[in-house]
Structure formats: C-alpha cells, structure tokens
UniProtKB/TrEMBL annotation:
Transmembrane segments: none
Gene Ontology CC terms: plasma membrane; SNARE complex
Annotated localization: Cell membrane; Cytoplasm
GO BP terms: exocytosis; Golgi to plasma membrane transport; protein transport
UniProt KW keywords: Cell membrane, Coiled coil, Cytoplasm, Exocytosis, Membrane, Protein transport, Repeat, Transport, WD repeat
Principal location: membrane
Membrane-related topology note: Peripheral membrane protein
Protein name: Syntaxin-binding protein 5-like
GO molecular function: GTPase activator activity; myosin II binding; syntaxin binding
Region (Disordered): 471-524, 591-617, 798-827
Length: 1072
C-alpha cells in the first residue's frame, strides 16, 4: 500500500434518506424534478428513482423559498439570512452562479412566473423588489401607487392566495378556517365564503371558527369541477387529530390524515402555463418526516409507493454496518423475501417525479448497508452503485410478547430509554447469511436465513447456577492463598432452578427476567427470510440488573457466538445450544493478572450449586435425558493456574436458563432453542459509561493501576485460525479478546470434526493468556499471513436449514467448514507465520505470531481517541482506517503502519456520528449525518475518478409544451401583460439602477447564457444532438414541402400565363 495511490482529500459521494427538518419545496413540471430545502441550508433534488443530488449553502441558513426556472436547468433559493442564490442544475454537481445579499430588509417570499426573467422578492416591510434573473441584478420598481386599482379587505388574516387560471377570480385562505372567493370586478366583498370543516348552524348564523387554513390551491379542469386543495382548517373540537390535507372536488370533500405535520404541498399539473386549464393529477405533500404523493386521478385518492430511500428514520437508527463486495447471490435472495413484505393499496400509476437520467458509470461489486433501529427492526439496503434501495425488513420484536405502540412514538426521532427492543450491536456473516443481534435489554438473538416457513414451540426449561465467592485482597490484609472451588457435576436443583417450565418474571424476585425485559413469544410462526435460531437473554440475579452488551462476534464455521459486557464474556455453541464458557474478565488472566484490583466489600453469598457451570455442565434435551458436554476445566490450562489466588473484583454470579425450541419434523441436531444467560455485576460497582452515550470514562494509558476504572469491560472479539500460545507450531481455531484496558487475550477452541460429530461431541474452550497490551480500549483485531495478505475468518457456506428429503442431503453436504489457507513454517527454526493487527483508541500494533513480538507500532493520536477502526481491503493492498473524535480520518499501511492519509473531515458534534460511523472495503465509509440521513464518503482515488460518471444528471433537454391559444377575441381586445411591458417597466432604460446599498451582488463563475451551454455528461450531449437532428430533419421536411408547393405554384402560374398568351395572341391592342 503506497501513499501515492491514495487521494489526499476526502470526498462525499452521495447522501441518502429524508431531508432533515425540511422547510421549503419546489417542482419543475417540465423537467419533472423536485427540490426540497431544509432549515440547515441544505438542498435535496430528486428525479426518477436513483437520481438524487445533495447541495449545501455555505451560510447554513434556513431555506425559506425555492423557485425553479422551469425547463431552464436553474433554481432560485431564498434563505433566512436574506440572501438569494441562483443554482446551475445543468451539471452533475449543481453550483451557485449568482447571489444577492439584502442588507436593509428581511425577505419573506419569492415568486418567479413561468418564462419570465423578472424575479419578485417580497420583504417584511411590504416592498416588492424586482431582480433580473439573467444578470441577477436588482431593478428599481416604479413607485408604489397611493390608490391601487382594486382593494379587497376582509376581517380575518390572509394566509395564502391562489388564482383561477382565467385571472378573473382568486381564492384566499384565512385564520378562522374560511375560504373566500373574490371576483376581480367585484364590489369589495367576497363572491363566496366557504368553511370546509365548520359546522353549519341551523339558524343561518356564521359557522363556528376553525383552525387556520395555512395554504390553498385552486386548480381547474376542462371537463369537470375545479379542485380546491388545502391544509389546516380543522374544527377546534378535533383535539388530538392528526394533521390533514383536504381535497374538495365538486360536491365531495376528502380529508386525508397525515402521520406528521405538513410543511408544504404542491399540486402537480399537466401544463406549466398558469393561464390554461391546469388538469391536476397529483399532490406532493412535504411532511416534517416524510414525503407523500397523492394520486388525484384515481378514486379514493391513493398514495404512490415512494421509490426513494426516505424511511431510514422510520424508527431512530441505533447502529449501522456497511459491507462492500459481498456475495453476488445475497442481494437477489434478500430481495426475493423482502418483496413479499410490500404493502398493498398503492396507486397503480407510475411515480410522477421522473426527471433526470441515471449515470453511465457502473460498479463491479455489490454493497449492502444494514441499519438497526430503536423499535427492534433491522433493515437491509442495496447500496450498490451509489444508490440505496430497501431489500428486506426484519422485526425482532415479534420474538417477544411485549408489543410497542409505534404510532405514539413517531414524532420522536431520538432514542429513548423506553425502547426495550433497540438494536445495539450487529454481527453478520454474509457468506453463511447468519445474523447475530445484541439488544439494549441485554439479549442476543441469532437468525438463520431460510426460504421456507417454520413454526417453533417451547418444550423445556433448565436453570443452572454457578457462583465465585469473594476473595480477600492482599492489600486489605487478608493474606493467604485460597483453593479454587472443587469442580463437580452441575445439576439443576429445585432451589436454584425454579419451576421447570416457567421462568421467573416477577419484578419482586431477585433472580430471573424482570418486567422491563422482553419475554419470549412462543409458539412463533416465522415467514421466509431471517428466522430465529437462538435467543440469549441476560437476566436479573440477586437483585442486580444485567449490564448491556458491549461486544459481539460470531463465526459460522465454528458454530459459535461470543458476547461480552463490563463483567465478562460468554461463549455459546448455537449448534448444540449450550453455553461453553462464561467467565469474568479477571478470570481470563488467571494468576498473570497485571493489574492491582481494588478490593470490594465482602458479602455473604449462596453456596455454589456446581463447580463447572461456567464450562457447560449438564444439558437436558427435549427427552429430558442428560447429555454431558464434558468441557475441560480452567485448571488444566497452565496460563490460568491458581486463578483465584489473585484479587478479584468481587462476586460473579452466572445464571443460565436453557429453553429448547423444536420444529417438530427435524431431528435432534436441528432443534432450535433459547438460551438465557445472566452475568451479575459486583455490588458497589458503578456501571461503565458506554461509548454511544458518553466519553467521560477514563482514558489513562497506565497498565499498573485501575483506580479510575471500576471494571475491565470486553470491547472486541475476533475469531481466527492462528497460534493461541507463544511458541505454538501449528495454527488452530482461536478467539482473540480485547478489553477496555488495552489487553489482548487468546482463547483456544478445540472443535470436533465437521458433520454429525460436530453436533454431538463437546467443544473445548481453553483461555490461553495475554498476547499484547496497548494504550486505550481495544477496538479492532485482524490477521495477515507472512506475505501481508489479509486472512479472512473462516465461514460456512449458506444452506437451506429447513430442507427435507433430497434437499436435506444437499444441506448435509454443504455443511463443511471452509478451509483457511494458512500454513506455518516447516523449518526447525521458528519463523513468523502470521501477523496480528491490533488497533486501540490510542495506537496500533502489528504483532508477529507465534513469537508474539511487536514488530510495528504507531501512535494514532495523543490528544484525542479513535472512535472507529477497521482493517479494510483495497485494490492496492490492505490498510487500517481510523476515525477519531477530533474529526480526523486516518489510514495506515499494513503491515508497516506508515501514514497514508490524515484528513480533518468531520468534528464529533453528535454521539450519533460516533455510534454509526463505519468503514468497509474498497475505500468506502458511511455515517448517520442527521437522524434521517446517511452520508457516504470515499477515500479511494479509483472511486473518486469514477464518481463523476456514476452520478445521475438532473437536467435533460426537453421541449417546452406549446402555449395555449389565446383565442381571436382575446387577442383582438387585449388582456394580459407582455414581456415588452415588463421590460419597459423594470428595465434599466426606463427604471434605472437600484441602490447599491440595498443588496450586494456576488457574481458566480458564469452567467445564465453560459449556464445553458454548460450541461455536462455524455447523456446530455447525446440528447441535445438527437433533438438537434430531429429539429434539423423536421426543418428539412418543411423545406421540402415548401419547395414542392412553390414548384406546383410555379407550374400553375406558367400554365395560366400560357393560356392567357394563347387567348390574347391574335388580338389587337384596341381590342383589350
């Protein structure tokens, strides 16, 4: 990996999701594109599905108004800081051409008539300023008349005005919920007054006032009644009713309820000309957190199915994963099951916002984004080729009995403590399609992917318990050595297990599942897609709540998952449905604990019911026959000998509840089950602040004292085939564990042979001691071979878990672990066969294995700390990518750890960024830039070079529709202003130049005429050439017709002349 191959600047690629805090909207009816402005000064432009664009005003002021230059490829935006900007949309990345900054007046409204070069800007002082769009200069309007031609007054405040297309009537909406229709030649009184939602009194009195009608639009049709569309105006007695849009057509009135408050709405019409019949066909409604398009052409006014990825925030996002270059058959598989989840009742017509063209560039590898949400849902998104499309939606809350009423929480986009199903950590194996989720309620759910239905049912429950008594600290005067507990057969006892078929769920009990922890929902019918394989629930023990899970990993080739928290870790065999290992962090060190632990106050504990409960114990299957899993005790490991002689952090209590779940037709080894596991914290210990909530925890680099650290949490895992101990001669399956104090420990895994023996013989788990220590919490671990090539974890290929018959035989053949191409040296002298890459919050190290010597070390940051680190594969090699809390994105080469990239990209302004930032292969990264939007970035030169071609084009050359015929009498007797009238009225020749102090002009790189010729991209050039050829062919055809007509006329004239000559040939002059 060389520095020359890297782009030394970061590059935003695309932004997905709903525009956060929208404030304005505009639509181009000819180009068929939509623009939305936000309160943070952002612009989002939408065309056909897959054509989107994001722009940002530098000032960050709120967008208060937007106006398209219809079919000109330009947009005018007015901001709350009293600036007006002209955007060029004829390029793939729109840019500002001109700006005007008003100094004396506040802008309140902007209007640009169709095919006009005069922009009208209204201010809070009641003035209307005229701007020439072509030069973007301010014109001096004529003096405001003291006595206008017509004045219309009404008792109630006016919120909006809309014209009838003939210009003879207009309609106003008022603050008392009424609509007034006025004739131009009226007597100063409304022609008609309507209260759409008011109750009409029987005595003929005025209806009761309603809520203000904030906006009304008046659209006409040729063959029917006009449409009046309005927002607001509901009766005051409709307390708690959701916001509504009202559509009045003839005698019918339809009230359409919305999920969120209405920001603005626009009616889409067939013609861009305001003086023609409008023929409305749809209404675009911009809500605070959604975009809805209503079909006016179908009965019942159904909505269109929104093709944009605007539902990212449907429930607040709690975590993200980004996977590039995933298996090619994965996206079609997810789409096939996700297509069955689509709602019904949408409009059958095509999505009306269909402008722009897709980019010509292609991406050779598929990408998937996974988002976890506060309501327990997990969404899979197809993120290939800078697009985003939802593939599949998984609802984990169905596993539990407690249900959530999402309707009450829709208006809250922040994560709250009352979300018991919130997803906290995700681990996914794309090759085997196994998904593991850790929830905020300290539960872990394992899912398998299946294309068939399945129904599960709870059959049995067994509870095991193991305790370690307090150990006196030498620092506290309690000197002597203590013998470890005697291992013995762990058998479920009535005193500790409770009733065999009912877990403890009472909030008054010291053990078991509490009321605020979700309870299992069985029997459970599972549709095709991701289906529950196993549930692990940490429960309350001795009145102590379970600590949240801080790290999670799975390996499909080994059939194991591991998770940890601030107390310790647990390894679970999800194939045999057993707990293989549950240890406190202190016990992982054994007698080699380098830290002087602070003593805890001793307390009386219950007698242990069994000795080796941490290592599996007895397992009771569905036939209640005991099956010994016979795991090796920790005393057999030399690195962990005399583990209880070192001071511990107090009592660690583990309560395990195993619930088997059977599908009925499957053999024993295919039984699904639920494991409930609890790790109880020591009394007096303060819970560790998690990274997604606070950064207040100690970041001391000392490894001799943990006075500032109450506990040592498990922060990272990595399954691999490597050397577990120093000096090993052969690789074997291992688990590497990283802690919050910067320690890396190894755990050896002894797996039975693949196939049926793997499902019957026990898995041996042996802690093997410390491998390395770094400054700060361990974030990421990975492995390279002796040539520096990345060693991916082994995996199991996907198979249909519910297959029967011949398909079942194919399934058994497919269940073979993928071999890892790692071969240690065969020479007698020990050579380094692998390199372990370890990244912490402060530094990175490359450690040679099996000697465990540090060969490269790099200090990433001294003044800040790393939030996210990943070992990623690039086309040019491998690297370590880091995102720091000070906003820097860094890249280090492997294995040399030489700096390749250091860019000050984004300061940490919100914990949401730290929680969702993630890197993936091939130079891609993403994070949640707002509660509703995903920002994708790239740090790869190759991607930056291809990005321009991959981006879509908003502007496409389209013929402007013909203007409506004015009619003979209208043209004869006049009516309507002409462009010449306005030129004489507002032009510099007649009106002069405006005062320079009123508004400051900030010119852009090119004018409007230059903008028209600046359309970029091959698609636009080809389209213009095609239209030019069509026009040329049409003109040539017309020329041929005119030539033929002239030839026929000449022949006729020659014939008549010849006849006249013959007739007059023999006449004398006096005979004429």
């Amino acid at each position: 990996c060389t520095g020359a191959a890297w782009v030394q600047i970061r590059r935003n690629t695309v932004r997905h999701g709903f525009p956060y805090q929208p404030s304005a909207m505009a639509h181009d009816p000819v180009q068929k594109i939509l623009a939305i402005g936000t309160q943070s000064g952002a612009l989002r432009l939408f065309g056909r599905p897959g054509v989107e664009c994001y722009c940002q005003h530098e000032s960050g002021a709120a967008v208060i108004s937007l106006q398209f230059l219809i079919n000109e490829g330009a947009l005018v935006s007015a901001l709350a800081d009293d600036s007006v900007h002209l955007w060029n949309l004829r390029q793939k990345r729109p840019a500002i051409l001109h700006s005007l900054k008003f100094n004396r007046e506040r802008i309140t409204f902007v209007h640009l008539p169709f095919q006009s070069k005069w922009l009208y800007i209204g201010t809070e002082k009641g003035n209307i300023h005229i701007v020439n769009v072509e030069s973007f200069t301010l014109s001096v309007p004529p003096p405001r008349p003291t006595h206008p031609d017509s004045r219309y007054t009404y008792d109630e405040a006016i919120h909006s005005v809309a014209w009838h297309h003939e210009g003879k009537q207009f309609i106003c909406s008022h603050s008392d919920g009424t609509l007034t229709i006025w004739n131009i030649k009226g007597q100063g009184k409304p022609f008609q007054t309507i209260t759409p939602h008011g109750k009409q009194p029987k005595d003929g009195k005025k209806p009761e006032p309603c809520k203000p009608i904030l906006k009304v639009e008046y659209k006409t049709t040729r063959l029917g009644d006009p449409f009046m569309i309005l927002s607001g105006g509901l009766s005051y007695d409709t307390v708690g009713r959701r916001p509504c849009l009202t559509v009045m057509h003839g005698k019918s009135t339809a009230v359409l309820e919305m999920d969120y408050p209405i920001v603005d709405f626009l009616t889409l019409c067939e013609t861009p000309y305001p003086n023609d019949f409008q023929e409305p066909y749809a209404v675009v409604v911009l809500l605070e957190k959604d975009l809805v398009v209503i079909d006016l052409a179908q009965n019942g006014y159904p909505i269109f199915e929104n093709p944009y990825p605007l539902t990212i925030h449907e429930s607040p996002v709690t975590c993200c994963e980004y996977i590039a270059d995933c298996p090619v058959d994965l996206i079609p598989a997810l789409y096939s099951v996700g297509s069955r989840q689509k709602r019904q009742g949408y409009s059958k017509r095509e999505w009306p916002i269909s402008g722009g063209n897709w980019g010509l560039g292609t991406q050779s590898y598929p990408e998937i984004i996974i988002t976890g949400h506060a309501d327990g849902t997990v969404k899979f998104w197809d993120a290939s080729a800078i697009m985003l499309q939802v593939l599949y939606k998984l609802k984990t809350a169905k596993v539990f009995e407690k249900s959530r009423n999402n309707k009450e929480d829709k208006q809250n986009t922040e994560i709250v403590d009352e979300d018991p199903f919130a997803i906290q950590i995700m681990a996914w194996c794309p090759e085997s399609r196994i998904l593991c989720l850790a929830g905020v309620s300290a539960n872990v759910i394992i899912y398998r992917f299946s294309k068939q239905d399945i129904t599960t049912e709870v059959l049995l429950e067994v509870r095991l318990q193991y305790e370690v008594n307090d150990v006196e600290s030498p620092l506290d005067g309690g000197g002597g050595d203590r013998d470890p507990p005697t291992p013995g057969a762990a058998s479920p006892s009535p005193q500790t297990a409770g009733p065999p078929t009912h877990p403890s769920t009472s909030s008054n009990s010291s053990d078991g599942v509490r009321d605020n922890v979700p309870c299992l929902n069985t029997p459970l019918k599972q549709s095709p897609g991701y289906q529950v394989e196993l549930v692990v629930q940490l429960v309350w023990v001795s009145g102590e709540p379970p600590q949240q899970i801080t790290s999670l990993a799975l390996n499909s080739a080994y059939g194991l998952i591991v998770f940890g928290n601030s107390n310790g870790l647990a390894v679970v065999d999800y194939l045999q449905k057993t707990v293989l290992l549950n240890l406190g962090t202190v016990e992982l060190y054994g007698s080699n604990d380098p830290y002087q632990r602070q003593p805890r106050s001793p307390r009386k504990t219950r007698q242990p019911s069994g000795g080796n409960g941490r290592f599996g114990g007895n397992f009771t299957d569905v036939t209640t026959k005991q099956v010994d899993v016979g795991l090796c005790d920790i005393n057999e490991c030399s690195a962990s000998e005399d583990r209880c002689k070192s001071p511990t952090s107090g009592k660690l209590s583990f309560s395990v509840c195993v619930i088997s779940v059977c599908t009925g037709a499957l053999p024993f080894f295919a039984i699904s089950s639920t494991v409930l596991l609890s790790v109880c914290p020591p009394r007096g210990a303060n819970p560790l602040d998690h990274r997604d909530n606070s950064f207040s925890r100690s970041r001391s680099s000392s490894v001799t004292s943990i006075d500032k650290e109450v506990r040592e949490a498990i922060t990272s895992f990595h399954f691999c085939e490597t050397f577990a101990r120093k000096g090993d001669s052969a690789v074997a399956p291992c688990l590497f564990v990283g802690t919050s104090l910067g320690t890396v420990l190894a755990v050896a895994l002894n797996l039975p042979p693949a196939g049926e023996q793997r499902l019957l013989q026990p898995v041996i788990v042996l802690p093997s001691g410390t491998v390395a220590r770094l400054k700060g919490s361990i974030l990421r671990m990975s492995f390279l071979d002796n040539t520096g090539t990345f060693l991916p974890p082994s995996f199991e290929p996907w198979y249909e878990p519910n297959a029967t018959g011949a398909d079942g035989e194919e399934r058994d053949k497919a269940r073979k672990r993928r071999p890892v191409s790692v071969s240690p040296s065969t020479s007698q002298e020990l050579q380094e066969s692998q390199y372990a890459v370890v990244v912490s919050e402060k530094q990175a190290k490359v450690i040679a294995l099996p000697s465990q010597n540090c060969i490269f070390k790099h200090s990433i940051t001294e003044t800040s700390f790393v939030l996210r680190a990943d070992v990623v594969q690039m086309n040019i090699g491998n690297c370590v990518a880091c995102f720091c809390a000070n906003g820097h994105i860094m890249a280090l080469s492997l294995p040399g750890l030489r700096p390749l990239l250091d860019v000050n990209y984004l300061p940490l302004t919100d914990m949401r960024i730290a929680r969702t930032f993630c890197f993936t292969n091939l130079g891609q990264a993403m994070y949640l830039t707002s509660p509703t939007e995903i920002q994708r970035i790239t740090y790869s030169q190759e991607t930056c070079e291809n990005l321009q071609e991959m981006l879509g084009e908003l502007f496409t050359p389209v013929e402007t529709p013909e203007a409506p015929n004015r009619g003979f009498f209208k043209g004869l007797f006049g009516g309507g202003a002409t462009s010449l009238d306005r030129e004489e009225l507002f032009g510099e020749t007649q009106a002069g130049k405006a005062s320079r102090g009123l508004a400051q002009h900030i010119p852009g790189p090119q004018g409007l005429e230059g903008m028209k010729g600046a359309a970029s991209g091959v698609v636009a050039d080809l389209a213009r050439a095609r239209i030019a050829l069509d026009e040329r062919g049409q003109k040539l055809g017309e020329l041929d017709e005119r030539t033929a007509a002239m030839l026929a006329s000449a022949d006729s004239f020659g014939k008549h002349a010849h006849d006249m000559m013959l007739k007059c040939k023999d006449k004398k002059w006096y005979q004429f």
